[in-house]
Amino acid sequence: MTIDWATLAAIAVVAAAAALTVVLLVALALVGWSARSAGPDGGRTSGTHTAVGAVAAVLCVLAAGLVVSYGLYLIIA
Amino acid sequence: MDVSLIIVAVVVTALVFDFTNGFHDTANAMATSIATGAFRPKTAVAVAACLNLTGAFLSVQVAKTISGGLVDETLINPVVIFAGLIGAIMWNLITWYLGLPSSSSHALFGGLIGATWVAGGIGAIDFNAVLNKIVLPAVLSPVVAALIAMTVTYLAFRVTARAEAGTVSRGFQLGQRVSASMVALAHGTNDAQKTMGVITLTLITGGMLAPGSPPPSWVVLAAGSAIALGTYMGGWRIIRTLGRRLSDIHPVQGFSAETTSAAVILASTHMGLPLSTTQVCTGSILGAGAGRRLAGVHWGMAGRIALSWSFTLPSAAVVGAAASWLAATGAGGVIVVGVTGVAVASGIYAASRRNAVTAANVNDLPRPESYDLAADVAA
Fold it and tell me: Which of A7, A37, A68 sits opposite B271 (nearest CB)?
């Protein structure tokens, strides 16, 4: 019996890296976006804090979009 | 037997299998999105149907072998394919009735193994390939997907713990629309191709197409339409199991599960070791449930699903073998197998209507364990 353990391991590593990257990027984007609204304690956030959060959110979403686009390329190609 | 009769029977049966494949697997992509409200039920199945149809046209890579090398393909003829498809359809319908997600591909392979066994004896089956391509991936893929989804979900909860809850929930719901669509598209690309391969090879073996021919456009259209129609019908029983009865699913978990599923499916397909979409998605949902709270997973239901997976191959094989034995007797046998299949399918459908699961009640919570039916009826 020959089991292709190398391919199985590669699938696990690549899939874990891709899923972790996308989910964490989206999670960080939402943390950044949350800065626009009141904090968890109900307090107001500063303008700079809001702007930095929004920019970070946009960058994270763009990065996640790139990974998703590569996934689409894999489906179509 | 008249060759054209059995070829017509195979084409029709393959399209019926494709239809059951569609409604059986809608849950893979859309169950968690429906459970979290990212999509309304009818919208979810409509989106999945469109993407399955699109997926059918995207790829021109038609399966060169329909059995994946599990059996001696020189023994495969239209009668064997017909019998194998009957076995796969029966198993798909039974598991749909029970609300259990199981692999349509494994059911098809099981049916073909049983049918080929009858046609060519035990030597026609490559048990080494069965172990490597079916049994081992069936054990490993849901475990790997579950571990990845559990880790990812745990980290996502930790990262967003101090963020505004409403924003996080809405954001992940939006993300779910993309991740669920990716899984649906990947499913359409893989599974519609499978039926196209079955029909094309049948036409080649019947002398209606030259060897090596691509699928005719009517085959592409018919296979894509069948799987899309099946997807649109929505396998609500399985959607309810995966979305509501395996674990309590929040948008964070839904997004993590679907992203993990898409990543595992795409990675495995790209590396030449395609895995069962159903088993990967089920493992991901289980892992996403455990990533928030281990006790949040309904382990009894997980056990039932695992049990059904262990029966998929042998059960479809037994039906496929019986159908192959009957169909090989001639045109009468083919008709008897076809009529019996229609009768059993009708019976399962009629039984399902007594406790119908539809778009309207798919998100209903399961009854609590202390639920007293007699007291409820008396009241």
Answer: A7
**Contact (CB, 8 A) for A29 and A60:** yes
CA dist., res. A15 & res. B82, Å (int): 36
Inter-chain contact A75–B171, Cβ cutoff 8 Å?
no
- Give the integer Cα–Cα distance in Å for B153 and B255: 9
Q: Do A23 and B256 touch (CB under 8 A)?
A: yes
Q: Is the per-residue pLDDT at A39 higher than 60?
A: no
For residues A6-42, one letter each, b for 16 or more C-beta atoms within 10 angstroms of the residue's C-beta and e for the rest, the string is: eebeebbebbbebbbbbbbbbbbbbbbbbbeeeeeee
Cβ distance A24 to B159 less than 8 Å, yes or no, reads: yes
How distant is the Cα of A18 from the closest Cα of chain B, in angstroms? 6
Q: What is the share, in percent, of chain B residues with pLDDT greater than 70?
A: 93
Kindly state the average pLDDT of the residues B23-49. 93
The answer to whether A27 contacts B159, with C-beta atoms less than 8 Å apart, is yes
pLDDT tens, B85-137? Answer: 999 999 999 999 999 999 998 999 899 999 999 988 888 888 888 888 788 88
Q: What is the pTM of this model?
A: 0.88
| Residue B332, CA distances (Å) to B119, B266, B275 in order | 18, 44, 38
Q: If contacts are CB pairs under 8 Å, which of residues 8-47 in chain A contact chain B?
A: 8, 10-12, 14-16, 18-20, 22-24, 26-31, 33-34, 37-40
Give residue limits of the domains in chain A. 18-76
Cα B51 to Cα A14: distance, rounded to the nearest angstrom: 25
Which tens digits make up the pLDDT trace of B310-319?
999 999 999 9
CA distance B261 to B247: 16
Phi and psi (nearest 5°) for B71?
-130, 165
Q: Which DSSP string do the residues of B216-283 spell out, in sequence order? A: PHHHHHHHHHHHHHHHHH--HHHHHIIIIISB---HHHHHHHHHHHHHHHHHHHHTT----HHHHHHH
B181 reaches A (C-beta below 8 A): no
